[in-house]
C-alpha cells in the first residue's frame, strides 16, 4: 500500500502545471512541486493504514464466513457472497429483528440527544454573549463535562444511577417521593433515559463551544443598528443571532449526529459488556453480537450497513443544506 | 448584571440616545430567563462533579449504603488505597506515554499537512481534504476488528509488535485526532497572511523554514488548541484501549474498571481514582480553553 501511494503521487507531480507565481531562481524553490505531497505523506500514510485499509478489509470480511478459527487467516476463509447481509437484515429471524430494534433505538436516541445538546449549547452560548460578573467562571464550568475523560464522567453517572446507593433514586424516591419504590436505571426500560441523560451531559458543552466561537463572528454593529431601530432583546435574538448561527449550527448538528450515532464509549462504560435492550445502540450491538457469537462475518456486514446508512444521511444532509444556502444566496 | 461597556465607544449621536434611556440594556424578562436557565444548567453540570468529589472523601459504608449528600466523616483513605487496589500508577504512566506521544505526532503531522493544503495548489488537494474529513464519520466498530487483524499480520510479517504494544495504540489514537486537527489548522493557517511567509521565502528561507519560523509562531493558538484536542481524544478513548492492550500496556480507560470486578465495589476509591485521573486533563483544558475557542473561531467555524 505504501508503495502504491508514493508511486501514484510521483507521476502526478510531473504533470502538475507550473504554479501561478513565477518560480524564483533561488535554491529551495526547485523541489516546490513535490513538496506539498511530501508534507502530506505522513498524514496520508497513517490515514491509509489506520482508516482506509481496515475499512477495505472490513468490507472484504463481510462477504466471508469468519469465526474465531478462521479469523487469523481471514483471507482464506470461505466466500459466502451476500449471505451475511441476508442474515442480518432478515426480519423473520432473531438476528435481523434485534438489529432493527437496535437501529430504531439508536435513531431515537440520536435525535433526542443531538436536539438537546444543540438546544442547551446554543442557549448557554447566547446567555454568555454579554459580559457580566461571573461569566468567565460559568464558561469554564460549562466546559468541565467536555474536558472530563469520558470514562470518569460515565463511571460517576453510573454510581449516581445505582439502585440502592445512588443519588438519583435517593432524590426521586426518598427526598421528593416521586417514585413509589427505588427503580433500576441501568437495566430495563429506564436505561434509555439514563443513557440519554449521560450523553446530553457529556455532549452539550461541545455545542456550546462551537456556537460560542460562531457568535464571535457575528457583526456587533448589527445589534447596535437593531437596537437603535428599536428592536428588543428577544427580537435581536430571533432576527440576528439565530439566523447568523445557521451555517455553524448546520455543521454542528451533522458532527453531533455522527458522533452520537457511533457512540460506543458511553454505553460501554455505563452498562458494561451487556447493554440492556432499551439502550442497545448499534455500535454496542455489533460489538456484542460479534464477540458473543464469534460470527465476525455477520458483524462486519452490520458495520458495512451502518457505514452505508451514515454515508447516505450525510450525503442527503449536505445536499439539502448546500442547496438551501445556494437558494438563499441567489 | 449586564455591562454595556463591552461595546466599542459609540459615536456621539448614539451616546446621547443612550444617556436618555439605554436601549442596549436587556429587558427584565431576558435577564430573569437567563438567570434561571444558567442556574439550572450549572446545577446539572455540577451534580456529578460534586458526587465525584464528595464520594471520594467518604468512608466505604457511606457509599455502600443509602446515598448521603454529606459524608458521615471525611477520610483521605480512598486516595491512599487506590494505588494498592489496582496498579493505578502503572496505568497512569501508560496513558501519559500513549496520549503524549499521540499528541506530539498528531500535531506535527497535522501542521505539515495543513501547511501543504493552505499554501500550495496541487492535484488531489480536494480529494485529500474530503477523504480525511470523511474518516470522521466512520464508526469505530467498523475498523476495530480489521485494524486488530492488520496489526497482528504486520507483527507476524515484520516482527514489529503493534498489537498489544503502546506503539499500536499511539498510531491509532493519533489518526483519530488527525482529521479534525488538519481541518482546524487549515483554517488557522489561512488566517495567517500569506505575505508573511512569502516575504520569508524572498529573503531566502526554504519553505520548511518559512513554515517553522513564520507560520507556526503566528498560529500558536491554533496549534495549542489542536494539541489539547488530540491529548483529550487519546486520554479518554475506551474501545480500542480495551481490545488493543494487555496487562503491561493497559491504560487508565480500561484500568479504572478494575475497582469493580472485586466482590465489593469500592465506589469511594473509584471516585477518588476518577478525580485523580481527571484533574490533570481538566486543569490543562481550562487553562488552555481560550485558545480552543480562538482556534475554533479562526479555523472550524467559517
TrEMBL record, chain A:
Its main location: membrane. It is found in: Cell membrane. Keywords: Cell membrane, Membrane, Transmembrane, Transmembrane helix, Transport. Residues 1-29 are annotated as: Disordered. Residues 103-317 form the ABC transmembrane type-1 domain. SUPFAM superfamilies: MetI-like. The chain crosses the membrane at residues 37-63, 103-128, 140-160, 192-215, 243-261, 296-320. It comes from the Bacteria. It is a multi-pass membrane protein. PANTHER family: ABC TRANSPORTER PERMEASE PROTEIN, INNER MEMBRANE ABC TRANSPORTER PERMEASE PROTEIN YCJO. Belongs to the binding-protein-dependent transport system permease family. This is Sugar ABC transporter permease. The lineage of its organism: Bacteria, Bacillati, Actinomycetota, Actinomycetes, Kitasatosporales.
Amino acid at each position: 500500500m505504501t508503495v502504491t501511494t508514493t508511486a501514484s503521487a510521483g507521476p502526478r507531480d510531473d504533470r502538475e502545471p507550473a504554479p501561478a507565481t513565477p518560480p524564483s531562481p533561488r535554491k529551495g524553490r526547485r523541489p516546490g512541486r513535490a513538496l506539498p505531497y511530501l508534507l502530506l505523506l505522513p498524514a496520508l500514510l497513517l490515514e491509509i493504514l489506520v482508516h482506509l485499509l481496515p475499512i477495505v478489509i472490513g468490507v472484504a470480511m463481510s462477504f466471508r464466513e469468519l469465526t474465531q478459527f478462521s479469523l487469523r487467516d481471514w483471507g482464506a476463509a470461505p466466500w459466502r457472497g451476500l449471505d451475511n447481509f441476508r442474515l442480518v437484515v432478515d426480519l423473520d429471524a432473531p438476528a435481523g429483528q434485534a438489529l432493527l430494534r437496535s437501529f430504531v433505538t439508536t435513531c431515537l436516541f440520536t435525535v433526542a440527544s443531538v436536539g438537546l445538546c444543540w438546544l442547551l449549547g446554543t442557549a448557554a452560548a447566547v446567555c454568555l454573549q454579554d459580559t457580566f460578573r461571573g461569566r468567565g467562571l460559568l464558561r469554564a464550568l460549562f466546559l468541565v463535562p467536555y474536558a472530563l475523560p469520558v470514562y470518569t464522567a460515565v463511571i460517576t453517572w453510573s454510581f449516581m444511577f445505582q439502585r440502592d446507593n445512588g443519588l438519583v433514586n435517593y432524590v426521586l424516591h426518598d427526598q421528593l417521593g416521586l417514585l413509589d419504590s427505588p427503580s433500576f436505571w441501568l437495566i430495563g426500560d429506564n436505561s434509555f433515559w439514563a443513557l440519554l441523560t449521560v450523553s446530553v451531559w457529556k455532549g452539550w458543552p461541545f455545542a456550546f463551544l462551537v456556537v460560542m466561537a460562531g457568535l464571535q463572528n457575528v457583526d456587533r454593529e448589527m445589534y447596535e443598528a437593531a437596537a437603535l431601530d428599536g428592536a428588543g432583546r428577544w427580537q435581536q435574538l430571533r432576527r440576528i443571532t439565530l439566523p447568523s448561527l445557521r451555517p455553524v449550527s448546520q455543521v454542528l448538528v451533522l458532527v453531533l449526529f455522527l458522533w452520537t450515532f457511533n457512540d460506543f464509549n458511553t454505553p460501554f462504560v455505563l452498562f458494561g459488556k451487556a447493554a440492556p435492550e432499551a439502550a442497545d445502540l448499534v455500535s454496542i450491538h455489533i460489538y456484542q453480537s460479534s464477540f458473543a457469537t464469534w460470527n465476525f462475518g455477520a458483524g462486519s456486514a452490520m458495520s458495512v450497513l451502518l457505514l452505508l446508512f451514515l454515508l447516505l444521511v450525510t450525503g442527503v444532509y449536505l445536499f439539502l443544506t448546500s442547496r438551501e444556502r445556494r437558494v438563499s444566496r441567489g | 448584571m449586564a455591562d454595556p461597556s463591552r461595546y466599542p465607544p459609540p459615536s456621539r449621536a448614539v451616546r446621547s440616545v443612550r444617556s436618555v434611556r439605554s436601549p442596549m440594556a436587556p429587558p427584565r424578562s431576558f435577564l430573569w430567563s437567563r438567570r434561571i436557565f444558567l442556574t439550572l444548567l450549572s446545577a446539572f453540570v455540577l451534580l456529578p462533579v460534586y458526587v465525584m468529589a464528595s464520594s471520594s472523601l467518604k468512608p466505604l459504608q457511606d457509599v455502600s449504603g443509602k446515598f448521603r449528600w454529606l459524608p458521615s466523616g471525611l477520610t483521605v483513605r480512598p486516595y491512599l488505597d487506590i494505588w494498592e487496589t489496582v496498579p493505578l500508577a502503572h496505568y497512569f504512566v501508560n496513558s501519559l506515554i500513549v496520549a503524549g506521544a499521540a499528541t506530539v505526532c498528531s500535531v506535527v503531522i497535522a501542521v505539515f499537512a495543513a501547511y501543504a493544503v493552505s499554501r500550495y495548489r496541487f492535484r488531489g488537494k480536494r480529494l485529500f481534504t474530503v477523504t480525511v474529513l470523511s474518516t470522521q464519520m466512520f464508526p469505530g466498530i467498523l475498523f476495530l476488528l480489521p485494524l486488530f487483524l492488520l496489526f497482528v499480520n504486520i507483527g507476524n510479517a515484520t516482527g514489529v509488535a503493534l498489537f498489544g504494544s503502546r506503539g499500536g495504540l499511539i498510531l491509532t489514537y493519533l489518526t483519530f485526532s488527525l482529521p479534525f486537527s488538519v481541518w482546524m489548522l487549515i483554517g488557522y493557517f489561512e488566517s495567517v497572511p500569506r505575505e508573511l511567509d512569502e516575504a520569508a521565502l524572498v529573503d531566502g528561507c526554504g519553505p520548511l523554514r518559512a513554515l517553522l519560523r513564520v507560520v507556526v509562531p503566528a498560529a500558536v493558538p491554533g496549534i495549542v488548541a489542536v494539541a489539547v484536542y488530540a491529548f483529550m481524544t487519546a486520554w479518554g478513548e475506551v474501545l480500542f484501549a480495551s481490545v488493543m492492550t494487555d496487562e503491561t500496556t493497559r491504560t487508565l480507560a480500561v484500568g479504572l474498571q478494575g475497582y469493580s470486578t472485586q466482590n465489593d465495589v469500592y465506589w469511594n476509591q473509584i471516585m477518588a481514582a476518577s478525580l485523580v485521573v481527571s484533574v490533570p486533563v481538566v486543569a490543562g483544558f481550562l487553562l488552555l480553553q481560550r485558545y480552543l475557542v480562538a482556534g475554533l473561531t479562526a479555523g472550524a467555524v467559517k
